[in-house]
Write a structure and sequence with these properties.
Elements lengths: L1 E10 L17 H4 L5 E6 L7 E3 L2 E7 L4 E7 L6 E5 L6 E3 L2 E4 L1 E9 L13
Antiparallel strand pairs: 1-9, 2-6, 2-9, 3-8, 4-5, 4-7
């Protein structure tokens, strides 16, 4: 298993400038980023202290009943969230209301053709 693209996200309350800035929509990582099989998020600052809003939610939709079960995580510096990147883990980040939210995203793949090689230079 190797890693695919890694990046630090910086989220704020400013209006989106392009499609990639619209982080608050429900999505599936494997659909958005081909090669993602597992996603790891490491939070670099604290929700409620460094920024407001910016919660992370998993959405488990029960289409037959027209209901959704939502599990919400409050980001804290150093907290790790790790999950499979497929349709079983639909998720979203709530809009940041004030301050700046930082998180490191590391994606893992089992596809050798998609993994990164060499050192990561930030």
């Amino acid at each position: 298993m190797g890693t695919t693209p890694r990046f630090v996200s910086r989220m704020d309350q400013k209006p989106a400038q392009n499609m990639h800035d619209e982080y608050w929509h429900e999505h599936v990582d494997a659909n958005q980023y081909p090669g993602f099989e597992y996603t790891a998020l490491i939070y670099l600052n604290d929700q409620g202290l460094d920024y407001t809003g910016g919660l992370f939610s998993f959405i488990d939709e029960d289409i037959a009943k027209g209901q959704a079960k939502v599990e919400t995580i409050s980001p804290k510096c150093g907290k790790l969230v790790y999950f499979t990147s497929g349709p079983e883990n639909v998720h979203r980040v709530h809009k940041v209301e004030s301050g700046l939210r930082y998180a490191l995203t590391i994606a893992f793949t089992c596809d050798k053709s998609k993994e990164l090689s060499g050192e990561w230079n930030a």
